[in-house]
Amino acid sequence: MSAARVHVIVNPKAAGGRTAKRWPRILTALTEKFGPITYSFTEARGDGTAKTRAALREGADLLIVVGGDGTFSECVNGFFEGGAPVNPDAQMAFITSGTGCDIRRAYGWPEVKDFAAMIDLIASGRTRCIDVGHIAMRDHKGDPIERYFANAASFGVGGAVSHAVNTSRIAKKFGGTLTFLVHALREAMRFKNQRVRIQVDDNLDEEFDVILAVAALGPYFGGGLKIAPDADPADGLFDILIGHDITKREIPGLISRIYSGRHVNDPKVKMTRGRKLMATPVNPEDRVLMEVDGESPGILPATFTILPGALRLRG
After folding, report:
1. Which helix (H) or strand (E) holds 278?
2. Which residues contact 26 (CB under 8 A, 6 or more apart)?
3. Which letter does DSSP use for residue 110 in this model?
4. Is CATH 3.90.226.10 what the domain over 3-125 is classified as, yes or no?
């Protein structure tokens, strides 16, 4: 691969601004491995998507993302347009420098501070084809939108938690696990279960009083919650969790069990697998919030569809 065809997209604000401080050392390490590279910085939400598409159209065939899970997800969206890949042969890589780190956990990649080891993995040339999720939903104004995701998407309390995390300026300084735990407990104690009709392939069609439902590609969610312990990002299936009829008294214990993956046998947690999930509020007036790879772009109704092996991942 030509070094001139390697482009890096950096979110300097990731990890509470610590990524900007790490970038000079990361740039030096990347240059040592790949020679001269091009790079660009995100400046606002959504920049990762636009900059990824631009880099791919200009001939980049390896795009490296430096930032958090949200930045990675934005760039995944940039690999697709109009339901098709912008460049089917392009590869993507990730140097984790963010708050949640669930994507790093899913692939067993090195810790954030060990970016040199991650760059070695990227330079090794090892690739894998992973699944990508697609969602057709509504934005907060009610207009139809679509999103792609690389790790997990949810509705219910997850949308409230992601909004709280992304607007918190203090909590992110203390790391992903504590940040998400604090906001998960606070928002869950405020949350009222919402009745949703959930359809999965031809196997499930039921109404649930939902606190949280998740379509997962990887095992981890919410800064270390082991939400789908058996999820495989390359098996062509969503691992789907539906938490229902949960009382406020039960919330702390349930969150504790999710961190270790012991929630899968809970009678108020339904686990299933499928290629397509449809979710519709039973009461059309209910605003059921969505969460997509840690962001909160919209509301139900939504249709989740898996795209098997749609992204070539390096490292």
Report:
1. strand 276-281
2. 66, 95, 97, 115, 119
3. P
4. no
pLDDT tens readout for residues 271-289: 999 999 999 999 999 999 9
Q: Would you put residue 219 in left (φ > 0), alpha (ψ -120 to 50) or beta?
A: alpha
Residue 248: CB atoms within 10 A of its CB come to: 12
Place of tokens 């636009």: 50
For residue 171, give the 3-state DSSP assignment: helix
The CATH code that applies to domain 132-309 is 2.60.200.40
Length of the chain: 315
Q: Can you tell me the distance from the alpha carbon of 50 to that of 75, in angstroms, rounded to the nearest whole number?
A: 8
User: How many Å from the N-terminal Cα to the C-terminal Cα in the chain?
Assistant: 15
3-state class (DSSP) for residue 104? helix
pLDDT in tens, 154-209: 999 877 777 666 666 654 555 556 666 676 677 777 889 999 999 999 999 999 99
CA gap 143, 249 in Å, rounded? 36
Report d(CA 17, CA 53) in Å as an integer: 25
Rounded to whole angstroms, how far apart are CA atoms 258 and 255?
5
Ranges of each domain in the chain: 3-125, 132-309
Residues 6 or more apart in contact with residue 18 via CB below 8 angstroms: 97
Question: Hey, do 3-125 and 132-309 end up sharing a CATH topology, with the first three levels equal?
Answer: no
In the chain, which residues have pLDDT < 70? 1-4, 99-100, 163-181, 183-184
Q: What predicted TM-score, i.e. pTM, was given to this entire model? A: 0.91
